[in-house]
Each structure stands twice: as C-alpha cells, then as structure tokens.
Amino acid sequence: MEKNSQECILSFNFKRAIEREEFLVKKYGICIKNTKDKKVKDLITRYLDNANEHTKLLKDKMLKLNIQG
Q1: What is the pLDDT of residue 63?
Q2: With contact defined as beta carbons under 8 Å apart, do 35 and 9 qualify?
Q3: Sequence-distant (≥ 6) Cβ neighbours of residue 17 within 8 angstroms
Q4: 69 pLDDT band (50/70/90 cuts)?
Q5: What Cα–Cα distance (Å) separates residue 33 from each residue in 20, 21, 23, 24, 67?
Q6: Distance, CA of 57 to CA of 49 (rounded, Å)
Q7: 1 pLDDT exceeds 60?
Q8: What is the dihedral of CA 11, 12, 14, 20, to 10 degrees?
C-alpha cells in the first residue's frame, strides 16, 4: 500500500511540474511576441529554452522511473 501511495504522489508532482513548465512556455511565447526590445526578447527566449529543457528532463525522468503520466 505504501508503494502505491508514493507512486501516486510522484506521479502527481511530476505532472504538476510539467504543467507549470508548459504554462511558462506559453507565457514566455506571449511575452516574446509582445516585446519589442531585442535584449528583453533574448532574455525571455533563454527562459523559454530553459522551460522547454525542464519539461523534457521531467518527462525523461518519468520514463526512467516508470511513472505513469
């Protein structure tokens, strides 16, 4: 029973973390479209790239840990 609870908690938290990163990707995309300053766009683009990388890492880790998503 304890193992199932841990798996449930892990699954929930991984999914939530992925949702947050995907939200940031959308948010940064909107900011990039609405920003005219090149330096600010470059900065937000780096944030966008990091959020995409975090999403990929989380999904890869879920696969390695055999967590259902």
Answers
A1: 95
A2: no
A3: 54, 58
A4: low
A5: 20, 19, 16, 14, 35
A6: 12
A7: no
A8: 160
28 vs 68, higher pLDDT = 28
**Token output for 23:** 């939200």
Contact 62, 7 (CB under 8 A): no
**Domain parsing of the chain, residue ranges:** 2-64
Tens of pLDDT, residue by residue over 6-58, are 889 999 999 999 999 999 999 999 999 999 999 999 999 999 999 999 999 99
pTM (2 d.p.): 0.86
**The pair of three-digit structure tokens given for residue 64, joined into one six-digit string:** 């390695």
The Cα angle at residue 53 between residues 47 and 59, in degrees rounded to 5: 140
E-state strands within 1-69: none
> CB–CB of 14/67 below 8 Å?
yes
